[in-house]
Amino acid sequence: MTEFIPPGTRWFDLPSPFAMKRGGVLHGARLAYETWGRLNAARDNAILILTGLSPNAHVAANADNPGPGWWESMLGPGKPIDSTRWFVICANSLGGCKGSTGPASLDPATGDSYRLNFPELAVEDIAQSAHALVRGLGIERLAATIGCSMGGMSALAYSALHPGATRAMVNISGAVQSLPFSIAIRSLQREAIRLDPHWNEGRYDEQSYPEHGMRMARKLGVITYRSSLEWSGRFGRVRLDGEAREGEDPFGLEFQVESYLEGHARRFVRQFDPNCYLYLSRSMDWFDLAEYGHGDADAALRAIAANGALENALSIGVETDILFPLQQQEQIADGLRAGGAKASFAPLPSPQGHDAFLVDIARFGPVVGEFLGGL
Amino acid sequence: MTEFIPPGTRWFDLPSPFAMKRGGVLHGARLAYETWGRLNAARDNAILILTGLSPNAHVAANADNPGPGWWESMLGPGKPIDSTRWFVICANSLGGCKGSTGPASLDPATGDSYRLNFPELAVEDIAQSAHALVRGLGIERLAATIGCSMGGMSALAYSALHPGATRAMVNISGAVQSLPFSIAIRSLQREAIRLDPHWNEGRYDEQSYPEHGMRMARKLGVITYRSSLEWSGRFGRVRLDGEAREGEDPFGLEFQVESYLEGHARRFVRQFDPNCYLYLSRSMDWFDLAEYGHGDADAALRAIAANGALENALSIGVETDILFPLQQQEQIADGLRAGGAKASFAPLPSPQGHDAFLVDIARFGPVVGEFLGGL
Prior knowledge:
The structure is a homodimer.
Chain A: E1 10-13, E2 18-19, E3 25-26, E4 30-36, E5 46-50, E6 75-76, E7 81-82, E8 87-91, H1 123-136, E9 144-148, H2 150-161, E10 168-172, H3 180-195, H4 211-225, H5 228-234, H6 256-269, H7 274-286, H8 297-305, E11 312-318, H9 326-338, E12 342-348, H10 356-359, H11 361-373
Parallel strand pairs in A: 5-8, 5-9, 6-7, 9-10, 10-11, 11-12
Antiparallel strand pairs in A: 1-4, 2-3, 4-8
Helix pairs in contact in A: 1-2, 3-4, 3-7, 4-6, 8-9
């Protein structure tokens, strides 16, 4: 899986054994990470970015890898996350396949890939491993966490598990728990992979690979990451021209939107490990911040901010998000504010749905930049 | 496929050959239909119900089949569609598998099932065949068409192809054309079926059947037929109890919403012919009322109502519908009104999404009943 790892990646060895929330331990596990900017003498200018399900650690160009990253317009000198002021850290999530230890990694106990022998993954494990990295870099307290999508859950877990470990939080299109609609979508994505005969209970290889299942899962993901509104404006009912059509097949690609999904699927299928996808996907279903509030997620949010443990927070959401709908981001802001944080809620009218933070930099950039500038 | 046909079904022989919109003809084709109430002497009390993708013709109990139908609470003596006043007709859609001729039927030319040799199906073919049935029953002009979901498209096609053939129209969760989001969902459903090795280019049988593909397609359908709001209230994050869980499998059924989808899928998979599903599904992508307005769907709506051809119309939609969103039903009412019909738009706050008309009879019943009562 080395082809998934960007050049310039650094590694951090996690404490060994590393205990997982739902049971089991990892031996010799590590995180792939990158940094931007410089840690100041007071060690109080560090920002940790917690990612969505699939990204690698290469958020943006840096000295080790000048190639553009997945959030290139957001991070760098003079950009909303300004690397001339902040020391920024991002790790590939534990359980992922972009350098950090996950189901596709070698199990030192067997010398073979973990596959389904990897212990069950929780969002809390991602948060705990990131916290170990931050401490390993000599940082006692972060200036801010920035979590997007699944990373928004990781950011909440980070603060719930380590009160006061960050002074501020930017929670983007996040949630305290998954709604049944989102669980249903992800359950279907996993089923598509698991029903592919080539998945073979996780024992696939490059030659016999669950390509069909991954394609279905990715297409369903893209459908729910974007919005009906955006696609109506972008694709309408435009047909592909003759050459791009699949001959006379009445069920072949005919509409532009079908070709768009096909392109997304093709680009993703061999770039992401199917077992890692299953593990990360399920971790989002399981996450429930209410566990830290005696069954009450709002109480857990208040606890995160209690006694000045979290000073500032910004929760951003998008009206067209069907996967993490807007009321979930409002809940985060309301709960943190009720706990004592200076917390604001920024609902944005982006048409791009859940993925808007990746593409609608014109709206997200100023909101994030202003918040960080005010810290 | 005879097990799909309810008892008491009647058959109507379509003109032979029956020409299909996109090319090809059917020989010896027929529609399965049922009726309720009695046609009056003036033959002006007939209502035609045009269904969504999957229903059979058994809308409600009648003399031939006292078993409950799929819209039992809506149709019958004293019900919103009052069979003591109206003579009500419903056919299984052409191309379907509940008695009417479709891809699962025998091709008289070969003696074998049509399968993918069935000609391409258009919504207009469904409307034309229904119109032939209505004329065959001796009815010159309908009192009303009632079309739900795909049937809303069929109702528009019916009026566009035969101006004045109905005095009124109830269009429920319908649309003048499919949005790219809906096309994307349906494209993925079809892909799930077509990628199932047991689909075998349409040459499956009971022993080797694309069960996995149909299951995926159905689950995705159910996800988009309902709404996130409804499921949050209905399922929340409730887990299945131990017995219903799939052992220790971390990817097995665990949340109630997953079990709900599984149940829906199991009930559907062997009750609907996969090739019929593909044909009906694609017909919805292709339908575009704009063809009847020189590329302008609003002009086509106006034309439907022009010169008193359509007198009264009611377009009902639901706020939580993500497949046929509310603005599409508003467009229908606005266009018909602009053409001269007395047309009203009824947006309902049902939480059940696209499928609300099937389950939220408390809201739909009075609206439909009042409209029909005023005719």
